[in-house]
Every structure is written in structure tokens, then in C-alpha cells.
Amino acid sequence: MTSPGLIIVGSGPAGVSAAETFRRHHRDGTVRILTDDPALPYARPPLSKEFLRGDAEAADAELHPGQWFDERSIELVHIGAVDAIDVADQHVTAAGQRYPYQWLVLACGAKPSPFPVPGGEKALQLRSLADA
User: CATH number, domain at 43?
Assistant: First the structure.
């Protein structure tokens, strides 16, 4: 079991901003971002533009380099999907691991729904670096 602190579910701009703001006001304590994305946190808009055109690398879309997270003691935990959140006992379970928290932020983002039109299931849903 790990020490309680701030747990953020989601590594998009909202999750990273929450971690950054929390760390600015709380210099001590654990800050963990739980994510199902294997990449460093990145901005999604460039994926449908510069990245697909070949004008940018994956690193160009990163919100911050890995060193930025290390310098601020913000831990990125690439664990896949969160299995459960126990609000009463204040812990998140993911991949069989319990992550206790004192504070919890859900910054999960959204998932697109396929268009309910003929052929809609064939539409590309661009939501990650892997999709691009």
C-alpha cells in the first residue's frame, strides 16, 4: 500500500493542471496521476493536425517533458483503467493495486460515441497517440 495524498485519475490537461496547482500549494505529500495512456501527458488537438501531417513528433504534443514531473515529485502511474473507487475508505483500485488518497480528482475526459448513421462504425475516432 502507498501513502495517501492526492490521486488524480486522468492525465489530460485538466489532470496535469490539477497536479501542478496542488503541488504549488502543497509542497509535501504524494501526488499521483493514474492513467491508462502509456505516453507522457499530451495535448490532443495537435494529433489531428500537425501530427497526422507529419509536421510534428509525439514529443511536440507533450504537455511537459518527463523531467518536469520528476522535479515536482508528481508520479505518473501507467496502470490501465481504474477498477474501483472506494469513497468511504478513500482508496482507488487499479490493476489489483490500492492507492489511498486524502484528496481525489477525477479528470477522466470523454470518449466519443460512433455516429448513429450507416457506416458510422468505420469512422476513425482520434483520441490518443496510438490512434494517430
Answer: 3.50.50.60
State the Cα–Cα distance between residues 78 and 111, nearest whole angstrom: 19
**Interval 2-19 mean pLDDT:** 90
**Cβ–Cβ under 8 Å, residues 15 and 105:** yes
| 21-26 contacts at long range (C-beta below 8 A, 24 or more positions apart) | 22/103, 23/72, 23/73, 23/74
pLDDT digits (tens, 9 = 90+) for 80-97: 889 999 999 999 999 999
Q: How many domains does the chain have?
A: 1
Assess if residue 129 is contained within a domain. Answer: no
Q: Is the pLDDT of residue 2 over 60?
A: no
**What is the rounded average pLDDT of the residues 100-106?**
97
Residues spanned by the domain of 61: 5-122
Judge whether 131 lies within some domain: no
pTM of the model: 0.79
Question: Alpha-carbon distance 70 to 130, whole Å?
Answer: 24
